[in-house]
Amino acid sequence: MATKKMRKATGSLLEFACLLSALLVLLALCLILYYIFRRGIGAINIPFLISLPTPVGEPGGGIGNALIGSALMVALGSLLAIPFGIAAAIYLDQNPRTRLAAATRFANRVLTGVPSLIIGLFVFTVLVLRTGNYSALAGGIALAVMMIPVITLSAEEMLRLVPGSLREASLALGASKKQTVLMLILPAATGGLVVGIMLAVALAAGQTAPVLLTALTSRFWLENLNQTSASLPVLIYNYASSPFPDWQEQAWGAALVLVATILILNVTAQLFVVLRNRRH
Amino acid sequence: MAATEQPTRPQNGEGVFPYFTAAAAVLILLLTGSILLVVLWGAWPAWQAFGPAFLTTSIWDPVQNLYGAIPAVFGTLITSLLALALAGPLGIGTAIFLSELAPPWLKKPASFTVELLAAVPSVVFGLWGLFVLAPWFRVGPGQFLEDNLGFLPLFQGPSLGIGVLTAGLVLAMMILPTITAISREVIRAVPQELREAMFALGSTRWEMIAKVVLPTSKVGITGALLLGLGRSLGEAIAVTMVIGNANLIPASLLAPAQTIASLIVNEFPEAFDLQLSALLLLGLLLFIITLAVNMVAVWLVHRTAQGIPSSKEKRRGKKLTPRRCLGDGH
Q1: Do A195 and B322 touch (CB under 8 A)?
Q2: Is B317 among the domain residues?
Q3: Which residues pair with B61 in a beta bridge?
Q4: Which of B18, B124, B130 sits opposite A36 (nearest CB)?
Q5: What is the CATH number of the domain that holds B99?
Q6: Domain contains A249
Q7: Would you say residue A193 lies in a domain?
Q8: I need a labelling partner for B40 at 20 to 30 A (CA). Which of A52, A233, A275, B185 fits?
Q9: Residue B12 binned pLDDT confidence (cut-offs 50, 70, 90)
Q10: Which range is least confidently modeled, A90-99, A177-186, B218-227, B247-256?
Q11: DSSP state of A127
Q12: Rounded average pLDDT over A75-102
C-alpha cells in the first residue's frame, strides 16, 4: 500500500493534468476568437457591410447581399420550423406515452444526429434537382430541416417544466385542453421557448454545407426567392478558398460579423436562463 | 355566457387542434424517413452500376466514370479517430475539472465558455485552420515530424501544413465541447452520497474520482465520446478547407487526403448523372455510419442517466439549462 504522501502526490499530479486540459480547451477558444477579431476588425466598415462584392482586383466590395441572403434564409427557416417544432412539442407534451410520441422522439433524435451535409443532399435532390435551379427558397427549407429537431427537443423540455398543478387547475376550471395549452402552458413556457429558438437560429446562421448545396451563391442582390442567394458562411468558404489576398481579408471580416452575431445570440440566451433561474 | 357554456361541452372545445399537433409529430417522422429514402433513391443508379464493389474499390475517377469508396471512407475514419484520440482525453479531463475540481464560482462561467466553442460555425474553424493553424503546423510540429520521424511510414513526405493531421486537429477542436459538456452532465449525475462515502473511508479526492466517479459514469462517457465521433464523421466544410482534397489513400499523416463529406462538398456542384449518384451513395454510407454511431451513443448516455440510483431525485428538481435546450446531440 502506498504511503499517504504518495497517494496525495499522485492525486495532485492527475488533478493538475485535468486543470491543464481545461486551460488548453480555454486557450483554443481564445486563440480562435482572438484571430477572428484581430484579422476581421480591419476589414469591417460601413461600406463593407452594405455593398455588393466587386470583381477580383477592384478595391472595395462588401458582404451586403450575403448579409441579406443569410438573414432571409434564416428567417424563412424559422418561419417554417418554429410553428412546426412547437406544434410537435405540444403533441409530445399532451400525449407523452403514445406510440406516435415514442416514434417521433426517436425520429427527432435521429434527425439531430444527421450531418448537415446530408440534409443539404436531401433538399438538393428533392427541390433543386426537380425544379432545375438553386434557390434561396431551397436554402431556407434546408435550414428549416436543421432547426426542426432542435426546436422540438427544446420546446418539449420547456413545456414539461410547466407544473402539473397549473394544468390541473386550468382543467378543473372547465377549460378545454386546447385552451389550457394556448392560454396557460405556452405563455408560461414562453421564456424557455424563446431561448430554444435563439439557439436554433444561431445554429442555422452558421450552416455552410446545406446552404451551399441548395442556394449556391450569388454576387448580386436577392430579388426573389427563386434565385440563387449569397450567404455569409458560403461567402467565407468561397473567399477563404480563393487565391486573392483581398478576398481572404474579406473572409475574415465576414467571419467576425458571423461569429459576433452567433455569440451574441448564445450569450443572450444564457443570460436569460441565468436570470430566470435566479428569479425562481 | 361563455363561462357557463364551456363546462357542459368539454369535448367540443378542441376543434382541429389535437389533429394539428399530431400532424406535426407525424411530419417529423415522415421527414426523417424521407431523408433516408430520398438519399437511397438518388444513390440507386450508382449501386446498380457498381454494386458491392463500390465499397472495395479505391479509384475515384470522374473522367472515366469509375467510382469507389475506399479513399474517402479511409480518410473519414482516420481523421475522425485522430480527432477522438486528441479530444477524448482532453475533453474528459476538462469535464472532471469542471465538475469535481473547479471552485464553485468558476464552474458555471467555465462550462459556458466551453459550450461557446460549440457555437462557433464550422466554416470559421475551417478559416482559422487554413490561415492560422496550417501555416504554423507546416513550419512547427509538421517540420519537426518530417525531420525527426520521417523514417516512419506514418510521417513520410513533406510537411505541407494541410493534410490528415491538420484535419484531425481542427476536428478535435470542434468535438471538444460536445465531449466535455456531455461527460460533465454524466459525471454530475453521480450521486453525492457515493463521493461522501469515499471521503468517509479516507480516500483522497483523486481516489474518489478514479474509483467511484469515473467507473460509475464510464458508460455515459463512452456515449459522449461516440457523440463526438459522430459529429466529426459528418463534418464537412472545416475538413474540406484543411485536408488538401486528394482522391487517394494518404501515404502518411502529413499527406493530403479526402473524406466522404469533403468529397461531396468539392464535387457536388459540378456533378451530374453517375457521378452525382455515386456521391449520393457515399452520402448514404455516411448517413448509415453516423446514424449507427449516434444511436449507440444516445442509448449509452440515456442508460447511465437512468441507471444511477438517485439521479431521478435530482431530475425532479431540474432547472433550465442551455444544454437541455439543445438536446443530447449538440
Answers
A1: yes
A2: no
A3: B66
A4: B124
A5: 1.10.3720.10
A6: yes
A7: yes
A8: A233
A9: low
A10: B247-256
A11: I
A12: 94
What is the pLDDT of chain A when averaged over all its residues? Answer: 90
Q: What is the rounded distance in angstroms from the CA atom of residue B256 to the CA atom of residue B239?
A: 11
A35 touching B, CB under 8 A?
yes
B320 located within any domain: no
Chain B's closest residue to A123, CA to CA, is B35
Q: pLDDT per residue over B99-154, tens digit each? A: 999 998 998 888 888 888 889 999 999 999 999 999 998 888 888 888 888 787 77
Mean pLDDT of A172-200: 90
The answer to whether position A92 is within a domain reads yes
Chain A residue with minimum CA distance to B260: A117
Note whether A149 contacts B: Cβ–Cβ < 8 A. yes
Is residue B198, in this structure, part of any structural domain at all?
Answer: yes
Nearest to A91 among B21, B126, B237 (CB): B21
8 A C-beta contact, residue B304 and residue B214:
no
Q: Whole domain around residue B136: which residue ranges?
A: 23-311
Q: Do B24 and A88 touch (CB under 8 A)?
A: yes
B306 located within any domain: yes
Task: Kindly state whether A11 is in contact with chain B, defined as any CB-CB distance less than 8 angstroms.
Answer: yes
What average pLDDT does range B16-28 have in this prediction? 91
Please report which residue ranges of chain A form alpha helices under DSSP H: 4-41, 46-50, 64-94, 99-113, 116-123, 129-131, 136-160, 164-172, 177-179, 186-205, 209-214, 232-241, 245-279
Q: Which residues of B touch A138 (CB under 8 A)?
A: none
Interface contact A50, partner B, CB < 8 A: no
